[in-house]
Amino acid sequence: MAGYRLRSFETIGSTNTEALAAAAAGDTGGVWFVTAQQNAGRGRRGRQWESPVGNLAATLLIVPESSPTLAATLGFVAGVSLNRALSSILPSGLVKIGIDGADGQSDGSKARIALKWPNDVLADGAKLAGILLEAQKLSDGRHAIAIGFGVNAIAAPQGLPYPATSLLDLGVSRDAQSVFEALSDAWVDTFGMWNDGRGIGDVLKQWRASAAGIGAPVAVNQNGEVLRGIFETIDDEGRLIVRSDDDRRIVITAGDVHFGATASARS
Q1: Which end of the chain is more exposed for a tag (fewer CB within 10 A), N or C?
Q2: Pfam families annotated for this entry (predicted)?
């Protein structure tokens, strides 16, 4: 965790909220906010994120000198970092589960951990972790970036429309602190590669190498409208590129992504 400060809490509403409040109060960033229990966590689009005691809830506050457009690519830095951390924790081997699963890759071979655009991490095809990137403009014109990480270390939420899992479900007994240590170490290396946005090409290359579903059927739900096609790639700005059924190449900037049977369903 070289060069970063740490603020820890027993219980907190949201680590992202705490981080952005600190930025508004003048914190210059480079600080982790970690809690044993988060009781008002949120995911993308304001969705609730369950974070019971034992799971990891952490946010890194960064105030980069780069443009807002480049700062937005920190989500891919976060994804690569979390992929590295979880891959180092989870034993090798593939036991694919879940209707929304898609194989990940590592050095050309199948891998248990895969990155799902834009901000999820899958293990054996089920959601293991999520990332939430939020920005806030500061009085000096710069943007504070709160990068929230949620990892299901001991428990996964139930009743979701997609499969979810935890490290414990996968046979790995690791506490939130050890997961955080692996994540914070991986972040240092990946953030160094990003290099104020100058190295985003290298980061995206690593992200693509671990991506779930490239070359496979995909369905993207955008406010109730569903686009189906083939997940072609992630472009140099981190946007999802889908080859539609009528052979159009469509650029997607936001949406809920589904693979497998869900992507193929026509109802």
Answers
A1: C
A2: BPL_C, BPL_LplA_LipB
